[in-house]
Amino acid sequence: MKISLAIILLFLVKIAFSQEEMALIKSCNNTNLPACETLGSYYIKKMDWAKGVIVGEALCAKDLAIGCTFAGTSLLGLGKGKEGNSYLTKACDKFEPYACRSLGRLMKKVGESDLSHLYFRRACHYGLKEICSDLKRDKKILSSTGLDFLSKVKEDCADSQSSACSDRLSVLNTCTKPLSKEDCQLLPGYLSILFRAKLMQAEAKFSLTLLVAGEKALKIDPKIKAYSYDLALVLKDYKPQNYYHYVFGFMNSCSGQAKSTSLSLFKDSYKNINSKSLLSIRHYFNTGKKSDCYDPAIGFEAFALASLDPLNPTRLDIWKMNYDGNLIQLMDGLPSP
Predict the structure, then answer these.
(1) Which of 53, 126, 179, 201 could bridge across to 183 with cysteines, CB 3.0–4.6 Å?
(2) How far apart are CA 121 and CA 92, in angstroms?
(3) What does the pLDDT look like over 54-84, one tens digit per residue?
């Protein structure tokens, strides 16, 4: 009696896979990539490296950084160091913290202490909080020349699209003196931290612009005809994001009993923010005086605050925008090297 190939395969699948694994496989598809991430994580925990590579490479090809981490980790498990490092580097450069941590451990094993520290530092900045406490905050691994270069990058790349920024960064491609080989090895990691923080600053500008738009709508509303320090009223039709870096709103002294900041209005969106950072942010919003507040019939000032450096959680990046839409940076909180 002949048995069809389909039946044989079905029988083998039932033997080869556990019930849990089969459920994960069935859930994983192009429209449910989170389920594929769960499947990849399952293979990593089980140290099933061959299957981990398959799922990881597929997710990495779809530009999901965690997939690159799965692929890199699995390839290392199979003894393919060069390929594994390549995938982990790709993931770390996409701000995936677990890949950076893995690279830090690898560099430590081969005696590259400075590179190891920098990878661990990147993991900390990219969200792996538990590693931050193990880092020496005052550890300096760049030379004075490297530090000077980084300072000039901050100046020339205030606009990251400018030709001055491109010209400055191009020096790294050829590693031109006075930069040393070690500087050119370390600087890209620091620049990754810096430019990620600059990307985060766009959130402050967007939030304040959104707030000003809400205020202008109130001002032209024939039933209101005034600005407001009640953030719930200003953003009455706004659906909050799941996660914010910046707290935005008005000085508490201006709002009375109304909710004046996004932290009070969207509390669940700030669960991942460091408690010391939140304490500093709350303190700042409490420093304003009632006498400094604009009459809502005339104008207002709004602020956006965040901590961009997990190694210095009380150091804040502060922006202000008034009713004219003028944006001012009151304090630069970009991470220090």
Answers:
(1) 179
(2) 11
(3) 999 999 999 999 999 999 999 999 999 999 9
Amino acid at 335: P
The strands making up 301-306's β-sheet, listed across from edge to edge, are: 247-249, 301-306, 317-322, 327-331
The H or E element spanning position 261 is none
Q: How confident is the model at residue 1 (pLDDT cuts 50, 70, 90)?
A: very low
Q: With b meaning 16 or more CB within 10 Å and e meaning fewer, what string describes 1-18?
A: eeeeeeeeeeeeeeeeee
Distance CA 233, CA 265 (A): 11
CA dihedral (313, 317, 323, 324) in degrees, to 10, reads -170
Per-residue pLDDT reduced to its tens digit, 258-301:
999 999 999 999 999 999 999 999 999 999 999 999 999 999 99
Q: What are 186-191's contacts with CB under 8 Å, separation 24+?
A: 186/114, 186/115, 186/118, 186/141, 186/142, 186/146, 187/142, 187/146, 187/149, 187/150, 189/115, 189/118, 189/119, 189/121, 189/122, 190/118, 190/142, 190/150, 190/337, 191/150, 191/153
What does the pLDDT look like over 25-61, one tens digit per residue?
A: 878 888 888 998 998 999 999 999 998 999 999 999 9
Residue 252 has pLDDT above 90, yes or no: yes
Q: pLDDT tens for residues 159-169?
A: 888 999 998 88
Q: How many CA atoms lie less than 13 Å away from 316 in the CB half-sphere?
A: 25
Contacts of 315 (CB under 8 A, 6+ apart): 307, 309, 333
**For residues 43 and 51, is the Cβ–Cβ distance under 8 A?**
yes
Structure pTM? 0.86
Tokens representing residue 317 in the block: 């990046």
Look at the block and give the residue holding tokens 């909710």: 259
Answer yes or no: are the C-beta atoms of 262 and 230 closer than 8 Å.
no
Residue-wise DSSP of 186-248 = HHHHHHHHHHHHHHHHHHHHHHHHHHHHHHHHHHH-TTT-S--S-HHHHTTTPPPPS--S-EE
Residue 244 · residue 266 · CB < 8 Å:
yes
